[in-house]
Specification:
This protein is α/β, with parallel strands linked by helices and about 290 residues long. It is built from ten helices and eight strands. Helix 2 links the parallel strand 1 and strand 2. The termini are far apart.
Length: about 290
């Protein structure tokens, strides 16, 4: 009797979690859960409070990747410093480069800030462009479509369910975006500087001008000379908002704020980076902290 009960439980679990899905970052993982519903088991590899360029490649991540039927990665070079060695150690043919079970989101999102040349003299630049596109809430629709199509390709028996989940989510998200965009109209005159160019997609979407970065070059720590120059730019242009992410040092931003009268806003770069639990809460926090 116990064996029959156990078998029933296992079959039920199997029926409701057909695919094991790994996502490198939380925002993509949340979208995958919306589209996959009970048919997917979504695991997020990178902790949202850490620098997305340098996730610690722990053995536990290898175990997750070995079981994955689908790996959803940001791409654009963002995972270059940590994901390749994990994939080599995992040796999972389902998610290797070129396999059906690998979804590189950068292949679907129009990339901005594409460099004309790539050299270490320009800092830690990404050859394909700025990979931090998840800051734009409109990109969620692109993610959702790509994930829906990939789930259907891997699990065609449940195509109707994935399509239904997708349609429901898109309707809801378009309603959310309509309200979000309307509220952002009051923010278009904002002037900002950033620590790292994490929020360019959001700023471009809503026509908010960035006057520079605390980093003199991508991935390079701020110098005294660059900091003084940035202070002068902010004074000359009336910039009163500094966008500080959750993982870089905050001493420099506080120093610049003291010299310019600007406010430092802590902006999450990924779902959960600053305590957000839903996609709506994540984007609402970005908007509120930039605009207030």
């Amino acid at each position: 009797m116990k064996k029959i009960f156990l078998l029933t439980v296992l079959l039920t679990i199997s029926a409701f979690a057909s695919l094991r899905v790994d996502a490198t970052y939380s925002t993509m993982g949340a979208v995958a859960q919306k589209i996959g519903g009970d048919l997917v088991d979504v695991q997020v590899l990178g902790r949202a409070k850490y620098d997305p360029h340098f996730i610690v490649p722990k053995p536990s991540l290898i175990a997750k990747l070995r079981r994955a039927n689908l790996l959803i990665m940001n791409g654009g070079g963002l995972e270059l410093g940590w994901l390749p060695p994990l994939l080599r150690a995992t040796n999972n043919p389902a998610i290797r480069n070129g396999a059906k079970g690998l979804l590189d989101m950068s292949h679907y999102v129009p990339m901005i800030d594409v460099p004309t040349s790539v050299s270490r003299a320009f800092g830690d630049v990404h050859a394909q462009g700025n990979p931090h596109f998840s800051s734009d809430p409109h990109v969620v629709l692109i993610m959702a479509k790509a994930i829906k199509e990939k789930l259907i390709a891997l699990d065609p028996d449940h195509e109707a369910t994935y399509a239904k989940n997708y349609d429901t989510f898109v309707r809801s998200w378009k309603t959310y975006l309509a309200n979000f965009d309307a509220n952002m109209l009051t923010c278009k005159t904002k002037k900002v500087v950033q620590y790292h160019e994490l929020f360019n997609y959001f700023l471009d979407r809503y026509n908010i001008k960035s006057y520079g970065t605390i980093e003199p070059l991508p991935g390079i720590a701020p110098s005294s000379k660059h900091t003084i120059a940035l202070i002068n730019i902010m004074r000359d242009n009336g910039v009163k908002k500094i966008l500080q992410d959750v993982y870089h040092e905050r001493k420099t931003a506080k120093f610049i704020a003291a010299k310019t009268g600007a406010k430092v806003a802590i902006i999450p770069h990924d779902l959960g980076a600053d305590g957000s639990k839903t996609l709506q809460e994540f984007y609402n926090k970005i908007a509120k902290r930039i605009c207030q």
